[in-house]
């Protein structure tokens, strides 16, 4: 048997973080077993489905590195097939026309509310002849569900889940306008696409009972099911936008690497001993359904940031600069004035500075911000801490520019020797010279190693920036 999984999002919004994890689990399971993952866009809700959402889902999956097999299947385009299956159930006596009016259904609802029980259709048309149909009412087609016994799902995550059939009513398969319901469409599509494993959120667990009944009525094999607990916010409440229930594209804009987000998501609800960091191949080799926990996972931004920092430090410098450049178009307002690409000169400076820059940063946005000194326009705008350091230390920098001017072989070691000698000459500790010098050259109180900064900036830019600040009027 070839394992076939599917990711089947509804295109009513972006690819959110829970959906991304579901897609990852399906992808890993298929890869682990040498099978296929299919992508089906469940666009039967015509009012809420949008092209922009479809594109966001596809872009999000591609960015995360989750590829699928074959063409994207659009559920709405298969409506004729869904109708055909509903009508075949009708012909076999496993479904029936229901002529209950909207008013009758509302009365059923009202009665159920008053009696404090869940709404269930009362089966009033289950055994009646359509010749008794009231004039002018278009019927729906309902499944003739079993009324006795139980419906069982042997779930790979939740274990054995049992529903009493008397508690499940005859669900609608085809609406009165001839459009299929979600329940029917999912079953027919999964069957026709040869899906063997349905891995999805546990909010679909009740649907599993309904869909199992449709499979059984059709005499089709029911796929293996695995219902994964939801993701909660750090406070244990349902994950919402304030927690970070954002679209995958928002994580890209915030400067996370796809490899880090993928690694973080795989550990949300699934474990493999104490291992936290997985290469893609390690994930594929280790992933199974039995190690998915039954309790909801909690989203932890600090853990994601630490993981992202780890992957940034592992990424080759040239690749990190490429990743920064891809982020440029997404920076709101581009306060960095960098445009959409790096100039060749800035690119080579960024590559040279990257070993020092990537040690501290947790995201690409932080990384770009910490590289400010490389692309800042002269005269530099100093932040408040830098202004204070320079105001206090400016007298100790007097004359250092002439000493630096005399350096011929401009390397980190050569400039360090000059700065150390200057500090000794003015009777100061190294930090008392280095800190105001850092402020003058970077506009910040913190940066990568000062002498590395000077080496990357080069002699001309270092001296120009230093002289800009030395000639500026001291802060009052």
Automatic annotation (TrEMBL):
Domain Glutamyl/glutaminyl-tRNA synthetase class Ib catalytic: 3-305
Binding residues annotated for ATP, in chain numbering: 241
GO terms (BP aspect): glutamyl-tRNA aminoacylation
GO CC annotation: cytosol
Any Pfam family: Anticodon_2
Native species: Microvirga thermotolerans
Catalyzed reactions: tRNA(Glu) + L-glutamate + ATP = L-glutamyl-tRNA(Glu) + AMP + diphosphate
Enzyme Commission numbers on file: 6.1.1.17
Gene: gltX
Entry keywords, A to Z: Aminoacyl-tRNA synthetase, ATP-binding, Cytoplasm, Ligase, Nucleotide-binding, Protein biosynthesis
Every Aminoacyl-tRNA synthetase class I anticodon-binding domain range: 345-468
Annotated localization: Cytoplasm
Family: Belongs to the class-I aminoacyl-tRNA synthetase family. Glutamate--tRNA ligase type 1 subfamily.
Short sequence motif 'KMSKS' region: positions: 238-242
Protein name: Glutamate--tRNA ligase
Molecular function terms from GO: ATP binding; glutamate-tRNA ligase activity; tRNA binding; zinc ion binding
Enzyme category, top tier: ligase
Quaternary structure and partners: Monomer.
Record motif 'HIGH' region, residues: 9-19
Family matches, as PANTHER family: GLUTAMATE--TRNA LIGASE, GLUTAMATE--TRNA LIGASE, MITOCHONDRIAL-RELATED
SUPFAM superfamilies: An anticodon-binding domain of class I aminoacyl-tRNA synthetases, Nucleotidylyl transferase
Protein function: Catalyzes the attachment of glutamate to tRNA(Glu) in a two-step reaction: glutamate is first activated by ATP to form Glu-AMP and then transferred to the acceptor end of tRNA(Glu).
PROSITE patterns the UniProt entry points to: AA_TRNA_LIGASE_I
